[in-house]
Amino acid sequence: MKPVTLKQIAETLNISITTVSKALKDYPDVSKKTRRQVRETAAQLNYRPNSFAVNLRTRESKTIGVIIPEVVHHFFSTVIKGIIAQAEKKGYLVIILQSNESYELEKKQIDLLLSKHVDGILISLANGTSDFKHITDVIAQDKPIVMFDKIAKIVNCSKVIIDDRKAAYTATQHLIDTGCRRIAHFRGPLLPQNSIDRFLGYKKALLDNNLPYDPTLVYICDCSDMSFEEGKQNAAQLLEDHDDVDGIFINTDMVAIGAITEFNQRGVKIPEDISIVGFSNWFMSSAITPSLSTIDQPGYQMGKMAFKQLHKELKAIKKGKEVYPKIIELDTGLIKRNSTKTNLVKT
Fold first, then answer.
1. What pLDDT, in 10s, does the model give residues 20-61?
2. What is the pLDDT of residue 1?
3. What's the CA gap between 248 and 265, in Å, rounded?
4. In angstroms, rounded to a whole number, what is the distance separating the alpha carbons of residues 334 and 344?
5. In the prediction, which pLDDT does 54 show?
6. Which of 86, 138, 175, 315 meets the CB 3.0–4.6 Å disulfide criterion with 307?
7. Lowest mean pLDDT among 25-29, 219-223, 323-327
8. β-strand 120-123 against 145-148: which pairing, if any?
């Protein structure tokens, strides 16, 4: 069955196509009675607006693209929920793509979204991304792009972030405040900015408390997905390398849960022998035994704010106004659970 056209509605009601078009757009120069008749007839005939034609006329696709490293990751799934919640309010369709932490795939996905004429792009960079030309090319086309979570500081676009250094400092300070003096760090790959900043926050907390920084206590998670298995492997290696570690700050909850599992299997008592703080407040963090103390990372709020900023820039561009990149920093908080001691040590 062919799509119903404005002409068919007009012929049914014996009015002009222009009147039908105006009535469907709720123009005040068309009487309320006519507007009601047009809407009722359109519904009876199952009329659907030609979105392609509308897009050509308005130069908007009402579609945005989102590129994230992992769809199944709890943090990114909450970000997506925040984005979609806001996008639906403004009538936008969201295309979600997964880069699998691959720079090459990320580049292809940017090209794909541009070929689909999306109005703007939200992106959390892949761990493997070190060249940002594909991002700056988008900006050069006056296509708004907003980074979130994993960002590039040198790219001049809006970003929605947390203070990873401050959050990591808070996590490490909590370990120190509860008596830990030999603190290891399971960090992410060397490249992503958030991994770098969390390491620097960990290191600064040690030095500010007159605790020596020992590079042999830093274990790098090389896998792109920061996996449960890496947590187990690093925990096992830590026990072989050091018998005096009493605390660990771990870059993500998934890795931390892997570490807790390994320690539990080996009879290491948490937090009596080793205290652990994770990062992101994944839903399993409260279900593991012992429950995981962690940094609460506001994924849903990050998604909401990322879309809101993108939408502001889309409106500004439509009005011919200049867009000024903005850095939006969201608060984090420490969630204290059973993987760390409750007693504070006086200094």
1. 888 888 888 889 899 999 899 988 888 877 655 555 555 678
2. 59
3. 17
4. 15
5. 53
6. 86
7. 219-223
8. parallel
- Dihedral of alpha carbons 277, 278, 283, 289, sign: negative
pTM of the model: 0.82
pLDDT tens per residue, range 244-297: 999 999 999 999 999 999 999 999 999 999 999 999 999 899 999 999 999 999
Given a contact cutoff of 8 angstroms between Cβ atoms, the answer to whether 178 and 343 are in contact is yes
Closest CA to 1 of 43, 47, 41, 40: 47
Measured CA to CA, the distance from residue 102 to residue 107 in angstroms comes to: 9
pLDDT in tens, 164-177: 999 999 999 999 99
Class of domain 6-49: mainly alpha
- Using the CB atoms, write b or e for 239-263: b if 16+ within 10 Å: eeeeeebbbbbbbbbbbbbbbbbbb
59-162+299-331 CATH fold: Rossmann fold (3.40.50)
CA distance 270 to 264: 8
Token pair 């892997």: residue:
258
Ranges of beta strands (E only) in the chain are: 63-68, 93-98, 120-123, 145-148, 158-162, 183-187, 218-220, 247-250, 275-280, 293-296, 327-330, 333-335
The tokens for 90 are 């403004």
Instruction: Output the CATH code of domain 164-297.
Output: 3.40.50.2300
Q: Domain boundaries in the chain?
A: 6-49, 59-162+299-331, 164-297
Cβ(196)–Cβ(250) below 8 Å: no
What integer pLDDT is reported at residue 27 of this predicted model?
87
Q: How far is CA 265 from the centre of its chain?
A: 33
Hey, what are 284's tokens? 């399993």
User: What is the Cα–Cα distance from 97 to 108, expressed in whole angstroms?
Assistant: 11
**Contacts for 122 with CB less than 8 Å, ≥ 6 apart:** 64, 65, 66, 67, 83, 145, 146, 147, 148, 306, 307, 310
Q: Fold identical between 59-162+299-331 and 164-297?
A: yes
Give 2's contacts (C-beta < 8 A, 6+ positions apart). none
